[in-house]
Write a structure and sequence with these properties.
By secondary structure, this protein is α+β, with helices and mostly antiparallel strands. The chain has helices at 11-20, 30-39, 69-77, 98-112, 129-137; strands at 2-5, 42-47, 53-60, 82-89, 117-125, 141-148, 153-161. It is globular, with a radius of gyration of 15 Å.
Length: 162
């Protein structure tokens, strides 16, 4: 799979994949993707030789005008980081090592930019055990928990030091 930049032509497919993963991620629309395209540290997809979407990642650095309360929590805690807003793998490509490939690519980009940590959150409630297991295997550690969305969700705040 090739790790390549997302283009606006990819937006409908990204939205479909994203919506299939709610409630583990929040819904997004075209306007959100346009903003990510303009401001993200990394907005890339994995694509096979037939241009089929394997997965995608959106990651930000501090200082963006992004209103996620989880992103802001990390911004208050750390001066320098890459925040993984969302990473997902298409159901047809799961259990093939694509999540590991995305994280390896993201780590390379962060290290090249001398960024010392990756940050993200994983749902505790509603639970997302597969994501928790993946992040644990990748070396992420919990640095706190938060209630979000009017206490309807609880998330585990995770950091991987590079």
């Amino acid at each position: 799979m090739k790790f390549i930049n997302v283009s606006p032509d990819d937006y409908p497919e990204l939205i479909d994949l994203n919506e299939s993963c709610v409630p583990h991620v929040n819904s997004i629309g075209i306007d959100d993707l346009v903003a990510f395209q303009a401001n993200a540290f990394c907005f890339n997809k994995l694509s096979d030789s037939h241009n089929r979407l394997g997965g995608f990642v959106i990651a930000l650095q501090p200082g963006e005008s992004y209103h996620s309360s989880n992103y802001r929590w990390f911004e208050r805690k750390y001066e320098t980081f890459v925040y993984i807003d969302r990473m997902m793998i298409h159901p047809d490509f799961r259990r093939r090592g694509l999540a590991l490939q995305i994280y390896q690519e993201l780590e390379q980009l962060a290290r090249a930019a001398t960024i010392p940590r990756l940050c993200c959150e994983v749902n505790l409630d509603p639970p997302n055990p597969a994501s928790h297991q993946l992040h644990q295997q990748l070396g992420f550690e919990s640095v706190g928990t938060r209630k979000t969305e009017n206490d309807s969700k609880q998330v585990d705040m995770l950091v991987k030091r590079l």
